[in-house]
Design a protein that fits this description.
The chain contains 10 helices and 7 strands. Strands 3-2-1-4-5-7-6 form a 7-stranded mixed sheet, with helices on both faces. It is globular and about 50 Å long. The chain has helices at 10-17, 23-37, 56-63, 76-88, 105-111, 129-137, 157-169, 172-192, 210-219, 228-237; strands at 46-50, 68-73, 95-99, 114-120, 140-151, 240-246, 253-260. The protein is of the alpha/beta class and 264 residues long. Strand 1, helix 3 and strand 2 form a beta-alpha-beta unit. Helix content is 43%, strand content 19%. The chain has 2 domains: 10-154 and 223-260, Rossmann fold, CATH 3.40.50; 157-219, no CATH class.
Length: 264
């Protein structure tokens, strides 16, 4: 891939978001986990959160009584955001937070295996998506699960990539203008659907709000995509079985839950 100019930090965006995290935000994240993995599926399991971001899902895994939670992120500000929530939970000994890269083979080998490997909207921003996905799958214990989301492939890829590059190369005011355009589009859409345009900054099901999600999307480089067929074939070649899937339209993240074969 072309080396992109990257001025956006996912972690800084998350650090701003966690200043106002509420119990309702955490409850939505817990509901998200229960929806995708099942009620009680996390209890007593070893959980790995790759690219922990704000840390809200790591916190939720811990609240769901995971045996251990291990969170890491490449972005130092994401690590700080996750540690903030770790501290808010009383710094539990069974929840670890570190800085690391899913592309660092030595680091990945040092982690061991986990019953649940989770990575939402992260692996497609590493600059080597399929290597990152492969490394994530390699961290799943026999009989364990991997829950990931990846940007859906489509014909608009080059235009979306151009917009992300434009955002990263823009001045502070330029970035604000690009965000404002997205907000205006949302407000106009709400008007067309008979909704209050000034209530555009809704809380999203996974805990984030619309404003931070816009910034997250615009700033997200590197940027790769995958079709559902590509992801499923990739997993099957590694002896994983698809359990759940939600295919998103282009520009969104498709969601996958795969299970690993039990050791024979």
């Amino acid at each position: 891939m072309v080396d992109d100019q990257i001025t956006f930090s996912f972690g800084k965006n998350w650090s701003e978001f966690v200043q106002d995290v509420t119990e309702n935000d955490v409850s939505r994240a817990i509901a998200d986990i229960n929806y995708w993995l099942g009620e009680g599926a996390v209890a007593n399991q070893r959980v790995l959160d790759i690219g922990s971001g704000s840390g809200i899902h790591s916190l939720s895994f811990w609240k769901l009584r995971a045996a251990t939670v291990y969170s890491f992120d490449y972005d130092e500000f994401s690590v700080k955001a996750t540690r903030k929530l770790h501290e808010s939970a009383g710094c539990p000994a069974n929840w670890s937070v570190e800085q690391g890269s899913i592309l660092d083979s030595d680091y990945v080998r040092s982690l061991g295996n986990f019953d649940i490997v989770y990575s939402w909207g992260v692996l497609h921003h590493t600059g080597s998506m399929w290597e990152a996905v492969d490394n994530a799958f390699g961290l799943v214990a026999p009989g364990g699960k991997v829950w990931i989301s990846l940007y859906a492939k489509g014909d608009r890829y080059e235009d979306d990539l151009k917009l992300k590059r434009q955002f990263n190369s823009a001045s502070t005011m330029g970035k604000q203008m690009l965000v404002a355009r997205r907000v205006l589009r949302i407000m106009l859409s709400r008007i067309r659907h008979g909704k209050n345009p000034f209530a555009w900054n809704e809380k999203l099901p996974r805990g984030m709000n619309v404003y931070h999600d816009i910034i997250d999307w615009l700033g997200g480089l590197p940027y790769e995509t995958a079709s559902e067929d590509e992801v499923v074939r990739f997993a099957r070649r590694r002896n994983f079985t698809l359990e759940r899937i939600m295919v998103a339209p282009e520009g969104g993240c498709s969601v996958y839950v795969f299970s690993s074969a039990n050791r024979s």
